[in-house]
Design a protein that fits this description.
The protein has 112 residues and is of the alpha/beta class. The protein contains four helices and four strands.
Length: 112
């Protein structure tokens, strides 16, 4: 699972797009088309994300928003990791830091 940390920004959409692009480039699978799912993303913003990702050289087939009440396990997992990362950055939790450190060493989490 990939994650990116963005400091001193309030532009959530730009940070999300850049983070997605970093992950797609890190995977670097030739001729792959990517399907992107973003929590609570409307159709209009979905088109914007798709266009911006393509400008960042990502071969995106589809960008789809997931409704808040929709049960999508991978979105829930991504949200949980994002919340944990934010908690770690805000409070510098020793226990949470150790979990992140182990996950990064094992390759389960990759910071981009």
């Amino acid at each position: 699972m990939f994650y990116s940390v963005f400091r001193k920004t309030t532009d959530y959409d730009n940070a999300t797009i850049v983070g997605i692009a970093r992950a797609v480039h890190k995977l670097s699978i030739p001729d792959a088309s990517v399907f992107v799912y973003v929590d609570a993303l409307g159709n209009k913003k979905g088109h914007i994300y798709k266009t911006r990702l393509r400008k960042l050289k990502c071969s995106v087939k589809k960008v789809r928003g997931i409704k808040k009440d929709e049960n999508e396990p991978l979105i829930r997992l991504a949200d949980a990791v994002a919340r944990a990362a934010a908690e770690l950055l805000k409070y510098d939790s020793k226990d949470l830091g150790e979990i992140f450190s182990q996950a990064k060493q094992q390759g389960t989490l990759v910071e981009l």
